[in-house]
Amino acid sequence: MSFAGEVKNELCRTALSRKCCAQAECYGILLYSNTYTAEEIRIITENDAFAQRLPALFKKAFKLTFDRLPEGEGKHIFSITQPRKLEAIQQVFGGDPSALALHINFAVLEESCCRFSFLRGAFLAGGSVTDPRKGYHLELATSHLSVSREMLALMREMELEPKAAQRKGNAVIYFKQSDRIEDFLTSIGAPLSAMEIMNAKLEKDLRGSVNRRVNCDAANLDKAVEAAMAQLGAIRRLEESGKLALLPDKLREAAALRLAHPEDTLSQLAEQCDPPVTKSALNHRLRKLVELGKGEGK
Question: Nearest-5° angle of CA 107, CA 90, CA 150?
């Protein structure tokens, strides 16, 4: 199952406790559904949990049943065509579904709980969200431009701060920031899904940190290998020219240790000096050998 499907499943586990919130959720569904006119309401979904919730939701909100229920597997299609039922719904929400442009009746959404229920319904009917392991994107899409514009204003008033766009004739409200998506999902009743996004983000950050550390360690190792090769080359040139034996004891000791232990780090070599010296001191001696050896290579 997709992450969006899991989110909708979690939302559908929200209890139907208050009639006003059930009506607000239905309102969000209708404004973001396939058809909402004076002649017909049609809701189509592929989500099983949403399909199971719809009859109970409309029963709680309006004390009515659908005229058409899903048949068989695949897409679940619900519809209401009886004028009496359509009028009952219209009386609750006001407005005129036969008008050229639908609008949100904010009088239905005065309570904050009802506003969040309204957003939940809109997401169930017209929402989608990307798997957080792949990216961060949540959107609500509807063919009703006025509804989307008013939804944008409502969400900003609720301090959710989405962005808006138009795509293929649809008006889209969307989030691309993980923390904004987390806030939205938590507010509409999907805190577990919000936590999954947070965990996915932490995993990405941790993985990125580990990769940076590995790359840094690899780069440092490459530098250390290059330095050791340069030291060995310089020491061998000094040895071939007979000048190594003429150098001070400390430089000859450093050269002997490097020749004997070509893969050891500076710290390991410094500990083997007699007496042991600091890493910085040994590095200075080896750099001196490299400088002297350069002259022998010409």
Answer: 45
Residues 6+ apart with CB under 8 A from 233: 293, 297
Tell me the angle at which helices 249-260 and 279-296 cross, rounded to the nearest 10 degrees. 90
| Among 196, 156, 163, 164, CA closest to 177 | 163
Q: Which amino acid is located at 237 in the chain?
A: R
pLDDT in tens, 47-82: 999 999 999 999 999 999 999 998 877 789 999 999
Q: Map tokens 């719809």 to a residue.
A: 54
What is the DSSP code (8-state) at residue 192? H
The H-or-E segment that residue 64 falls in is none
Tens digit of each residue's pLDDT (9 = 90 or more) over 220-279: 777 888 888 888 888 888 888 888 888 888 888 888 888 888 888 888 888 888 888 898
Nearest Cα neighbor of 126 from 254, 33, 248 is 33
**Residues 140-173: b if buried by 16+ CB within 10 A, e if exposed:** bbbebebbbebbbebbeebebebeeeeeeebbbb
Please compute the mean of the pLDDT values over residues 3-31 and round it to a whole number: 94
Q: Model's pTM, two decimal places?
A: 0.70
Check if the beta carbon of residue 181 is closer than 8 Å to that of residue 138: yes
**Single-letter code of the amino acid located at 79:** S
How big is the chain, counted in residues? 298
Q: How many CB atoms lie within 10 A of CB 34?
A: 16
Give the Cα separation of 8 and 123 in Å (integer): 8
Vertex 13: Cα angle to 11 and 17 (nearest 5): 100
d(CA 88, CA 67): 14
